[in-house]
Amino acid sequence: MNEMMTAAVSRPVRVTKDLVHKHDAGQVLLVGLKRLAEDEFLVAADWTDTSEFVGAGDRDQDSAVLLTETIRQTFPLLSHAGYDVPFGHRLLWSEYRYALNLPTLREGGIGGRPDLHIRCYDVVRRRDRVTALSLDITVLRDGEQLATAHTRFTIQQPAVYERLRGSYGDAHRMLELARSRPLPPPASGAGEEFRDALLSPTDAPDRWQLRIDTHHPMYFDHPSDHAPGILLLEAAKQAVRTMRHPRVGDAEAMETVFHRYVELDSPCSVDVQLLPDDQLGRARFLVTMHQESRLCFTALASVAKERTTG
């Protein structure tokens, strides 16, 4: 371990909004970063005030979106503070999966100060710059495991991103296009507040149109030229909850792949298909999103068994 590495281990990093790519400091969920080894980190989170993320609905729904946003904020934090990625570089989500410990989350509720133990691997470097990372994450609170997750993302230099995206890479132009069109009405049945509804009904019971409100304070905290990944994840969970099936519920586990960007200037369809139960006997659903006949996103969701009451 070199001298720079030793210093990084002994000096925890205080998290600022810039380090997690947020404009609103009230949405920053991470408070500290400490390097334990070359590719291992301990990230401290703070869930004592989650009013920006937690509504008045089902707390299981809130725990999933809160967990995912907490994990998402580790991507830029580790990139900048852990691997010296310059600001302005683009982080591209490739895959993400999680498994919630719902009994513990239900018993302890949302709140407290969880720790995220993160191991990075399959680190790709080009010209001494990190260009891709895989993360294994364990989320603990007071010694109890709340969730596990795995994710991978890639990192592109601004010039490369701009060349690949072309006119689609102009966030302000894309937002103007999106806001020039009326927002479709929300679907009913998933239990979200109006501003958080991400689906609009169609004539088919297992298909919806993605509803992208570019004024949403969390999903569009800062300008984006495409639909953010966390919005797609939440839309997939809403689609599963809205599905007319006796065993629909909240996604206790999910495996997702981001195939291509969902653009802001054309409709995106969201389809749900019932699959055979998973190995734990949970109902399982496949969610796919297509835009202009191209596959953009897939998610396999295993639904939590119904709660029992004493």
TrEMBL record:
- Domain A-factor biosynthesis hotdog residue range list: 19-154, 207-299
Origin, by domain of life?
A: Bacteria
- Give the molecular function GO annotations: transferase activity
This chain belongs to which protein, by name?
A-factor biosynthesis hotdog domain-containing protein
State the organism named in the record. Answer: Streptomyces sp. SID12501
